[in-house]
Amino acid sequence: MASIRDYLFDTAFLDQSIDYLAEAHNLAVTVVDSEGMAVASRQPEGHDTPASRAYPFRFPSNIGGIVCAAPDPARLDQAEPHILYCLAALNSQLLRETELQETTEEMLQLASQMNFLVKVAKKIIGIDDLKKCYQIILEEIATATKADQGFIQTKGRWGEEIRVTHRMTEEEVAANRQSANLQRSASGSTIICTREDGASLLYSPIKEKKGLSGQMLFIRTGDHRAFSASEKQLVGIIENIISPTFETLRLYDSLQDLYLNTVKALAAAIDAKDEYTHGHSFRVAKYALAIGGELGIDSQQLNDLEIAGYMHDLGKIGISELILSKPGKLTSEEYCLIQKHPVFTDKILQPIKLPAHILDGATQHHERMDGTGYPLGLAGADISLFGRIIAVADVFDALTSKRPYRDALPVEEALRTLCEGIDTLFDREMILAFISALRSDRSKEVLGAINIVLRHDDLQNLNQFLIELTAFAMNANRN
Amino acid sequence: MASIRDYLFDTAFLDQSIDYLAEAHNLAVTVVDSEGMAVASRQPEGHDTPASRAYPFRFPSNIGGIVCAAPDPARLDQAEPHILYCLAALNSQLLRETELQETTEEMLQLASQMNFLVKVAKKIIGIDDLKKCYQIILEEIATATKADQGFIQTKGRWGEEIRVTHRMTEEEVAANRQSANLQRSASGSTIICTREDGASLLYSPIKEKKGLSGQMLFIRTGDHRAFSASEKQLVGIIENIISPTFETLRLYDSLQDLYLNTVKALAAAIDAKDEYTHGHSFRVAKYALAIGGELGIDSQQLNDLEIAGYMHDLGKIGISELILSKPGKLTSEEYCLIQKHPVFTDKILQPIKLPAHILDGATQHHERMDGTGYPLGLAGADISLFGRIIAVADVFDALTSKRPYRDALPVEEALRTLCEGIDTLFDREMILAFISALRSDRSKEVLGAINIVLRHDDLQNLNQFLIELTAFAMNANRN
Fold first, then answer.
1. Adjacency order of strands within the sheet including A161-166
2. Rounded to whole angstroms, how far apart are CA atoms A76 and A78?
3. How far apart are CA A130 and CA A132, in angstroms?
4. Coil, helix or strand for B313?
5. Pick from A142-146, A425-429, B20-24, B98-102: least confident
6. In this structure, how many other beta carbons lie within 10 angstroms of the beta carbon of residue A228?
7. Hey, what long-range contacts does A34-38 have (CB within 8 A, 24 or more apart)?
8. Which end of chain B is more exposed for a tag (fewer CB within 10 A), N or C?
9. Contacts of A246 (CB under 8 A, 6+ apart)
């Protein structure tokens, strides 16, 4: 059921037209809808109107028309030029309304695309994790296009694949990646097509200066309508405008990786000078990561903690290898020099504009909770968080590593030794976090990378031991 | 002079209206424009029409109206309801046209903003230099808003100012930065205002997640019209959408800086182990930069060359300081070990996914053009560009530095020694570039940073010497 009232902007003119025909030409006038029902009418007083004629509106679909009635057909003939003029006026307005509505729709669509872009842009400001950005954009596009599923796959700088998914299993992603359409869209054009099961698919390439860098797929499952041209356009515009951010993020991501790896490689080279410290910085970084992860530190901070871990013994470059790997007892002079390595680390890193928490983490791992550490004798919370974490990681690795004068200690003994230093030497929270990390599945990946085999007194009952140790550590040294 | 014809979409209906009034009501009908000139008329045949009445169109401005004429006023009175209905039909259409034109303009504006965004986004894809990106965006906005002048100022991560200008002198920038409006827009809103001299100013803040990071200013000088609300809106939208790219670029920029500085600091620490190589890597990097600059290498590649320069002796971590700083003659075994330092550099850097040209540059500085170098015995073009550059830089620094067994050589003698090795040991092009760098003003900044005083045989005639040496180097050893 459609009526001209739904299509005219100015319905006052419709009423005016009926009045005009009724008053000036003495007609009974009824505007009817597509089903012939009256939506407006004027009946002149004082006479019957048995003769009537219908004049449908000119419109792409049936929206009814005007029915004019008079006492006899001759009166209708007489009034016809006026009726036709009225109709022409209304038809002319209807024609314009159709044009207008199309334009308005186009505009609303453009405006909503623009709003969408601004919204997405605001959401990804300040996020320096490539994958997180892709995930946000995926979710936003999926919502805007009412897609049930979707994925974005793209390459990092080193060719590794980055993939984010929206309500899709690995199997579904794999199945859709085999599709010939994905290959076609790889040629650079956005494609809408229908899957055998009736689902509507929207494939779009992700381009960068050098060419194709990835693809997006959005899926509307069978019961919903297919993707529209305007949704295809939206995805294309987003891709175009977001690309520079992606490309820069990719560069940033790879440089961050390179930075971490370079510091790691150099730390490894320095450790390697002494067979007893081989791999030390690497393990300290990993233990620190395990503690940090347990404390719930965010991924950017964990990245910085790892860097601080690799950097903590850089200062050993400044100490002769003769002293570092001296088999016998050190003279007090030599010991004094060794104690200077955090100062040397600081001296090396000072000229770099390194974030303070990394620098502090790298240089405070020999500070102790009661202020008996070195080089500054800081105490308690004056020692930075990273410093307190790396202190625990550093001592644990020293204890569980072989030394010229002793074998590597079993994990249990190393942990007991750490617990003896709770509050006096080490931060209780860091020790509890480390024990918790050793028990948790979350740390398996981090600790699995450790490049020495840790000795245990009793590996089978390690978990029980850790539970008991936690209870002990929670109460140890408390007054 | 304005006429209804300029404002109606459907002028056919206008003609139809005139015909209707003339035919159905026997009137002389003239449509007149704002100045009373006829733009259309219908004259019924067979009678004069001395009585006339004008009916102006209802429109925001004067666009004329309809003049109806008849043999006498009574006939006009009789026709008036019909005339008024016609006028109502035309007025209703005019009202809609006005609405429509506003909507269309809005849409065209939105569409052009969207196009503009896509265009700018495509231009900045793949550019990883923050300043270059700002410059492109500044130029694009200035063009789009027809601004005569403009600048963007913002802060890098370390608080240093980044500024790009469009047709503005330093003095003009400084004068406009003092303005109270710049302070007002710092509160976060875009402002259009007029300067005392009549110029139109458009200030816009640049925001990021943490708050204000900079500002933009665009200026239209006196003779042009003031900035419009839509231009203000355009600048706001660009700012919103481009911000994430800026923020990421800023991060990337600062990380690149951090990377360079970290490698530099570590190289310095390694060099410092031996008093005779103190500052060596730094100087080699700077000499390499001077050669690279002379060869016209782009800024990103120069950055990589500098990194390779800092890295070239990292492998010395793996060699005992006893051998490195041994005062007397080395045994052949010791010499053999020292020759391994590029291999150690390679071993340290291999696990890092370093771009190949950096790795090659760092490890090939002891390769020689005739294949007599080490560790691989590469010859000619098989040695990478960076390797050939750093070889010249490395030998020049070795010759002009003090050694346990000799004083530092004067620059002239070092250069003569290098020239003797043209084609056999060193790449002629690199030596010519280095001599050219020593003569050019361009290299002053790079070479001015060198941290030792170079000795000269005859500083006053250095330029003459370099000219003669260039002539010699261009022909030396040629068959």
1. A161-166, A149-155, A211-220, A200-208, A191-194
2. 5
3. 6
4. coil
5. B98-102
6. 14
7. A34/A1, A34/A2, A34/A3, A34/A61, A34/A62, A34/A63, A34/A64, A35/A1, A35/A64, A36/A64, A37/A1
8. C
9. A130, A133, A134, A154, A206, A208, A213
| Rounded distance between C-alpha atoms, residue A68 and residue A43, angstroms | 10
d(CA A399, CA A470): 19
Q: In what order do the strands lie in the sheet with B28-32?
A: B38-42, B28-32, B65-70, B51-56
Lowest model confidence (mean pLDDT) among A204-208, A217-221, A261-265, B12-16: A204-208
Task: Kindly give the pairing relationship between strand B65-70 and strand B28-32.
Answer: antiparallel
**How far is the alpha carbon of B421 from chain A, nearest alpha carbon, in Å?**
34
| Global ipTM | 0.72
Q: Stretch A234-263: mean pLDDT, rounded?
A: 82
Percent of residues in chain B assigned helix, strand, coil, to nearest 5 = 55, 15, 30
| Domains of chain B and CATH, by start | 4-103 (3.30.450), 127-239 (3.30.450.40), 272-475 (1.10.3210.10)
Helix axes B356-363, B341-349, angle to 10 degrees: 160
Q: Measured between beta carbons, which residues in chain A are less than 8 angstroms from residue B314? A: 266, 269
Q: How many residues does chain B have?
A: 479
Residues A388, A365: Cα–Cα separation, whole Å:
7
Q: In B341-376, which positions are buried (b, 16+ CB within 10 angstroms) versus exposed (e)?
A: bbebbbbbbeebbbbebbbbbbbbbbbbbeeebbbb
Name every chain A residue with its beta carbon within 8 A of the beta carbon of B88: 13, 16, 20
Chain A environment of B316 (Cβ under 8 Å): none
